[in-house]
Amino acid sequence: MRVPENVKPSLHELEKTIGYKFKSLRNLYHALLHKSYVNEMPEKELIDNERLEFLGDRVLGLVVADLLFKRYPKANEGELSLTLNSVVRKKSCAQVARSLDLGAAIYLGTSEARTGGAHKEAILGDVCEAIIGAIYCDGGLASAYDFVEN
Prior knowledge:
With 150 residues, the protein is mainly α. The chain contains eight helices and no strands.
């Protein structure tokens, strides 16, 4: 998959916003490709961000579990699980996506864009998870850990 020259906003600007410099901008670009956009571009042989979202969700869960385990040494498993579940959820990821203005960077299909897809909680949460997955693929667990912790 080739990264187009005229991406919106600049992937380099987005790197600054999220605080991670990708070794391969293809990873970041891939994280921004919503299935509605990919479905409209079959000739380009693009792959949507759902696999990165899946991976990012698991990386997020691991990182948050580790942070909670270290920060709350006296908490039991039930307490840790409740806290983890309150943090690792679509709403929290969507809030992070909003704070980073990721909605402006998502590649959406025409209909999804027209109906406000860039502001939908589910789409924003998914793109945040996909970016975590992309960081993990690009720089490993330590880089993803830093992003989540920050």
